[in-house]
């Protein structure tokens, strides 16, 4: 019985390993499209900010029609890039101030062959530059080791010291057999 279980486990692991090594890479966009997907920068924006979209999928000198209607921005053009962006179509749109937080799909359709690529845009209420980090103490009702009043802290430490000394003295008397 153990031998059968080992054989089946080994076979399953080998099949999984072969499946992992032969899997095809996945690109953003629709299945079957090659040449990359749609890059949205920054990938996370607050309402009212501008987002830049680029894609190499349309080829050198290719243009595209962008669609950001999912976030409420509507259509926008992607023009062929120049300089460092040569070989990529790029465009931009402004996220409307009324946009709600969430993840939205941005779509671009290449002009020459109607190839469709997609990318994600995340709308948040605060930008990464304006992150607010918590500070101060948490009001749990338990208290802390160091309170705002040094007199209360000293009294607490003294009470703990007296309790520890008294407990030690009682344990010592009990060990000697003096009783309580």
Can you give a write-up of this model?
- By secondary structure, this protein is an alpha+beta fold.
- The chain is built from two helices and eight strands.
- Strands 1-3-6-5-4-7-8-2 form an eight-stranded mixed sheet, with no helix packed on it.
- It is rod-shaped.
- The N and C termini lie far apart (66 Å).
- Largest beta-sheet details: 8 strands, mixed
Our count of helices gives 2
Q: How is the largest sheet built, in terms of strand order?
A: 1-3-6-5-4-7-8-2
Structural shape: rod-shaped
Radius of gyration: 33 Å
Low-confidence sequence ranges: 4-35
Mean pLDDT: 76
Strand content: 15-25%
Number of strands: 8
Structural class: alpha+beta
Work out the helicity level: 25-40%
* Element-by-element helix/strand order: HEEEEEEEEH
N-to-C terminal Cα separation, in Å? 66 Å
């Amino acid at each position: 019985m153990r031998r059968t279980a080992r054989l089946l486990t080994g076979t399953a692991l080998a099949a999984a390993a072969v499946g992992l090594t032969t899997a095809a890479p996945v690109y953003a966009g629709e299945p079957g499209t090659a040449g990359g997907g749609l890059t949205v920068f920054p990938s996370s924006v607050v309402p009212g900010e501008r987002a830049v979209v680029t894609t190499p999928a349309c080829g050198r000198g290719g243009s595209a029609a962008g669609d950001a209607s999912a976030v409420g921005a509507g259509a926008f053009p992607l023009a062929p890039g120049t300089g460092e962006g040569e070989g990529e179509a790029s465009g931009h749109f402004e996220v409307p101030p009324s946009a709600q937080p969430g993840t939205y799909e941005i779509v671009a359709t290449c002009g020459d062959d109607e190839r469709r690529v997609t990318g994600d845009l995340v709308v948040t209420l605060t930008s990464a530059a304006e992150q607010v980090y918590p500070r101060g103490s948490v009001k749990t009702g338990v208290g802390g080791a160091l309170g705002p009043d040094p007199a209360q802290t000293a009294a607490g430490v003294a009470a703990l010291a007296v309790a520890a000394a008294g407990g030690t003295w009682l344990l010592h008397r009990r060990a000697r057999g003096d009783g309580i």
